[in-house]
Amino acid sequence: MTNNYSCIIVDDEQDAIELLTSRLAYLYKNITVTATYSFWGDALEALRAQPCDLLFMDISMPGKNGIDLLKLLPSLDSEIIFVTAHDNYALDAFSFSASGYILKPIDDAQLSLAINKATARIDNKRLARQTSPAPASISDKIGIPNKHGIDYVKVSDILYLESTNKCTKIVTGKTEYISSNYLGKFKPLVEPHSFFQVHRSYIVNLNSILRYETSGLLIMSNKQEIPVARSIKSEFLERFNK
After folding, report:
1. pLDDT tens readout for residues 183-208
2. Paired sense of beta strands 79-84 and 149-154, if any
3. Cα–Cα distance measured from residue 101 to residue 31, given in angstroms and rounded to the nearest whole number
């Protein structure tokens, strides 16, 4: 069975994004472009909240280049393929163990070589996770590192988690905690406890929702309003109704 892969494209040139998207659609039916970004700040926020299997990264961009952006994502587990018009960043690029470094204009053979290497790595990581021994039970607490140590919080006490200011805010009924870890780090820890990611910046406790409004807002038990992304509205309502 062919594995499926999600990917994100980061490039400040819209024409380049459209060209790469079309080449991927033609060459690989099992790769889905889940998002594209032309501004490094938007890409940073998205990758912290919802990492992908495969990341296509331009290097020369205004504000921060691709290398600078990746330095802000030390825990990123995506396979990286650089697609750039410049050949003088190759040494820096491969310090991130990139699967490929492709020069524009894109050559299909070079693109396929890099993608095949990346997907083989992804498959190996998936296999390693499947063969790892499962924990004896799901912990009812999570540890939240901070500069003083680690706070241990009951998962059932958490109302929601929010990606904010390059960190994650964990909100309970009584207090708030701030962790320097990105939101995606917490997702596998809380999902088994009836949590659902309703937006790239929010994961909510389904048991702490007071009301869903047709405008696309959730009202939590602490009266906080949280948006539900249009792209996952149907999936959320199906899960919530259950």
Report:
1. 888 888 898 889 999 998 999 999 99
2. unpaired
3. 19
Q: Quote the percentage of the chain above a pLDDT of 90.
A: 51
Sequence letter at residue 44: L
Angle between helices 108-131 and 14-27 (to 10 degrees): 70
What pLDDT does 135 receive? 46
Per the listing, tokens 């003083």 go with 148
**Which residues, other chains included, contact 205 with Cβ-Cβ below 8 Å and sequence gap of 6+?**
156, 158, 159, 160, 190, 193, 194, 195
Q: In the predicted model, is pLDDT for residue 133 greater than 50? A: no
Distance CA 198, CA 190 (A): 14
3-state secondary structure of 185: helix
User: Closest by alpha carbon to 50, among 194, 213, 219, 163?
Assistant: 163
CB 229 within 8 A of CB 199: yes
**Residue 213: burial class (beta carbons within 10 Å; 0-12, 13-18, 19+):** exposed
Q: Which residues in 14-97 belong to E strands, given as ranges?
A: 31-37, 54-57, 79-84
pTM above 0.70, yes or no: no
